[in-house]
Design goal:
- The structure holds two protein chains of two kinds.
- Chain A is mainly α.
- Chain A has 15 helices and no strands.
- In chain B, strands 1-2 form a two-stranded antiparallel ribbon.
- The radius of gyration of chain B is 24 Å and the shape is globular.
- The chains are: A mainly alpha, B mainly alpha.
- At the A-B interface, helix 1, helix 4, helix 5, helix 6 and helix 8 of A face helix 1, helix 3, helix 4, helix 5 and helix 6 of B.
Chain lengths: 285, 293
């Protein structure tokens, strides 16, 4: 450890090793449930229903995943994955578009009702879907949007957080740019496309990561409005794979589905870690 | 803060803001208004007409033993989830902060569970503690402890708490770690020169410096355990046994959709609305403090 330069409060030698040991233990404990799910997705049902199940992967990986993806239990998991993807991307892109537009209007224009609209958007923060489930369900049913992608996406698409984030960012764009655009006779939308949107691209990307996870992980809303298994999303569909009676659940398929359900958000979070952390910190501020 | 330069016109900005306002009105304000309105009525048994009862639904709710129990359950549940997710996260962040090399690798590994949906986390933990096939429950059985969260309310509560806290450890870790990295090293070194050992430095310097982050995380985690843990509870216990894990949000769902008791469910929505309102105000109070810090 002599190669490292230490401040005087950093640990050396045994202390450093102990730190690593604690850290590794922490990671192992936190990873254990995921590991177990992975192992369960690579063995046979017979291996699982005679506890204790093995702790190392078996040779059924291909069979179990193929079975889950293409046949599933109620509906092929491939279908549910597709539905989740449409929902998550729809929510993320939709929220970003409507928030960019409304933040642009609020920051760069003076118009009647501006403050009123601003407060209305702010108030939506206080109305999570969980507190308005029954009436929102009735609205969506009234529009005939049950079991549809628009029913999955639209009720979750308005976001005060994204609007505030963009508003905060727009306020830091130098006034000279807007001034120059106005002198050049550029129309507002031109300024929006050529200056504002390109300058916001890091914010847009960071927000996309957060909103994608948010959309992907939705549970209650898809549970309410998708009664047709063909429209189930993967996160809510797993619970539907459990038998209602006293039968054994088919654990290898269920666990393969759980692993499949976490792969896309994990790829997004780990792959875009920097953007993710930035988005997380910004959107919570 | 305001922009000096503004564009002229009022048609364009109204058009720009319209999508958000329309979506909010149709899917947020109208349903919320409906919830408030419906909370003042009870439907007749055939669902044909509504009878005005004023605050009757609320009176009934607040005197309902199960509803009051659900309040207590929610309080216990959210306190436990908040503690079980913040303490290990702080511990791991403190350790990671002491490492010069490798903390990035640990961070990458530790943020995984954040990406796992609460409902999926519920399935994973259910699998480990399943009464017939669960690995952990089997080993507990070998040790002579008969685990059965299907019948034992305390064990059911423990399981939903751990499953809900698990993914949040990642989230809290990221915030604690960022805050620790921002603590000026010079302050720590000065204390070390004065002979303060690690734990003393932690209690007297680092922890007070972390307090804005800690308050912020407290509020955010309480909000999380109130509203975003529905998936965990629905997959693991479905509110049971004997409603011991029925938190408020779960009760709105089960009374509104499973029992179709619209009046009561709407009144519960209104009460939740007030709770969210209070929590939002609290959140902003703390965030303001954070900004001034």
């Amino acid at each position: 450890m002599a190669r490292e330069t230490h401040g005087m409060v950093e640990k050396r030698g045994a202390g450093l090793w102990l730190t690593h040991v604690f850290m590794i233990l922490g990671v192992l404990v936190i990873f254990f449930p995921i590991w177990l799910a992975f192992v369960a997705s690579t063995v046979t049902q017979a291996d699982i229903i005679r506890p204790p199940m093995p702790v190392w992967p078996g040779d059924q990986l291909w069979t179990n995943y193929k079975n889950a993806l293409f046949s599933g239990i109620n509906v092929p998991v491939g279908t549910m994955l597709f539905n989740s993807l449409v929902m998550a991307i729809g929510i993320a892109v939709g929220k970003i578009i409507i928030s960019l537009l409304s933040a642009f209007a609020i920051v760069y224009f003076k118009f009647p009702g501006r403050n009123l609209f601003f407060w209305l958007i702010f108030l939506t923060l206080m109305l999570p879907v969980e507190v308005r489930i029954v009436p929102t369900y009735e609205v969506v049913a009234g529009f005939g949007m049950l079991n549809s992608y628009s029913g999955l996406i639209f009720p979750l698409i308005a976001s005060a957080t994204a609007t505030f984030l963009f508003r905060q960012f727009f306020l830091t764009i130098p006034d000279e740019l807007a001034e120059a655009a106005r002198v050049d006779g550029a129309r507002p939308m031109r300024f929006f496309w050529d200056i504002v949107v390109p300058m916001s691209r890091t914010n847009i990307a960071a927000l996309f990561v957060i909103l994608f996870i948010y959309g992907w992980n939705q549970y209650l809303w898809p549970l309410l409005i998708t009664t047709d298994p063909e429209m189930n999303t993967i996160v809510m569909g797993i619970k539907q794979m459990f038998p209602s009676g006293d039968d054994f659940a088919h654990w290898p398929t269920i666990m393969a589905t759980s692993i499949l359900a976490m792969i896309p958000p994990v790829i997004v979070v780990v792959g875009m870690q920097r953007l993710f952390i930035r988005g997380l910190v910004d959107s919570e501020k | 803060m305001e922009k000096r330069v503004k564009f002229r016109g009022w048609m364009l900005p109204l058009l720009l803001i319209a999508p958000q306002v329309v979506v909010s009105a149709v899917f947020f304000f109208y349903p919320a208004g409906q919830a408030i309105w419906q909370s003042l009525f009870i439907p007749d048994p055939f669902g044909l007409s509504m009878q005005w009862v004023g605050l009757g639904n609320f009176e009934f709710l607040l005197s309902d033993r199960f509803y009051r129990a659900s309040f207590v359950t929610t309080a216990i549940f959210s306190i436990l989830v908040t503690l079980c997710s913040m303490i290990p996260a702080l511990f791991l962040a403190v350790i990671a902060d002491r490492l010069i090399k490798g903390s990035g690798v640990y961070r990458t590994l530790l943020i995984w569970p954040y990406a796992v949906a609460p409902a999926v986390a519920g399935v994973l933990w259910l699998f480990m503690f399943n009464t017939r096939v669960g690995v952990v429950s089997w080993y507990l059985g070998q040790l002579g402890y008969d685990w059965n969260h299907v019948l034992n309310g305390g064990e059911a509560m423990g399981l939903v708490v751990v499953a809900s806290a698990w993914g949040r450890i990642s989230y809290n870790f990221l915030f604690f770690f960022a805050a620790l990295q921002a603590v000026p090293k010079s302050v720590i070194e000065a204390a070390a020169i004065d002979g303060a050992h690690f734990w003393r430095r932690f209690w007297t310097i680092v922890l007070p410096l972390l307090s804005p982050t800690t308050f912020f995380l407290l509020v955010v985690n309480i909000v999380y355990s109130f509203f975003e843990t529905f998936g965990v509870i629905h997959t693991i216990t479905a509110g049971g046994p004997q409603q011991t894990t029925t938190i408020l949000v779960y009760k709105v769902y089960s009374d509104g959709f499973v029992s179709q008791d619209l009046g009561s469910s709407s009144a519960q929505s209104v009460i939740l609305l007030i709770v969210v309102g209070l929590l939002t105000v609290l959140q902003f109070k703390f965030i303001e403090k954070r900004v001034h810090y």
